């Protein structure tokens, strides 16, 4: 894959994940006090991930280095971590909510 293509597709993927994380953060704000308290750690982690995503997206938009291997490994690992936090939080929201929350 061409480096420019990689940067472009990674930018698109990270922007999509950033939107998903914002959505789940907003959904957690609708939870009742006790339920919300149980996932405060996850909410904090998700906010940190959003901040990291914003930094990476900016980097991809402003520069696309020809040697991307170290950043690619970091992004790939971060994506795995992000997905697990996202899924864990969405699962909890589903259990805590009396009605289904789409997303």
Describe this structure as you would to a colleague.
The chain has 103 residues and is mostly helical. The protein has one domain. The radius of gyration is 16 Å and the shape is elongated.
Ranges where pLDDT stays below 50 over 5 or more residues in a row are 98-103
Give the oligomeric state: single chain
Between the first and last Cα atoms, what is the distance in angstroms? 31 Å
| Total count of domains | 1
Helix content: over 70%
In DSSP terms (H or I, runs of 4 or more residues), the helix count works out at 4
What is the residue-averaged pLDDT?
Answer: 77
Give the ordered list of helices and strands.
HHHH
Main beta sheet strand tally, sense and closure = none
Query: Could you give the count of β-strands?
Result: 0
Short summary:
The chain is mainly α and 103 residues long. The protein has helices at residues 3-28, 33-38, 40-62, 69-96. The chain has one domain (3-94).
Mind sketching the topology for me?
Blueprint: H1 3-28, H2 33-38, H3 40-62, H4 69-96
Helix pairs in contact: 1-3, 1-4, 3-4
What descriptive keywords fit this protein?
single chain, 103 residues, mainly alpha, 4 helices, elongated, disordered C terminus
């Amino acid at each position: 894959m061409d480096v420019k293509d990689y940067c472009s597709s990674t930018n698109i993927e990270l922007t999509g994940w950033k939107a998903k994380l914002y959505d789940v953060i907003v959904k957690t704000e609708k939870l009742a006090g006790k339920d919300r308290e149980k996932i405060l750690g996850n909410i904090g982690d998700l906010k940190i991930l959003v901040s990291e995503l914003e930094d990476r997206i900016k980097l991809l938009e402003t520069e696309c280095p020809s040697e991307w291997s170290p950043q690619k490994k970091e992004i790939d690992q971060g994506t795995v971590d992000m997905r697990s936090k996202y899924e864990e939080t969405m699962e909890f929201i589903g259990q805590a909510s009396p009605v289904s929350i789409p997303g």
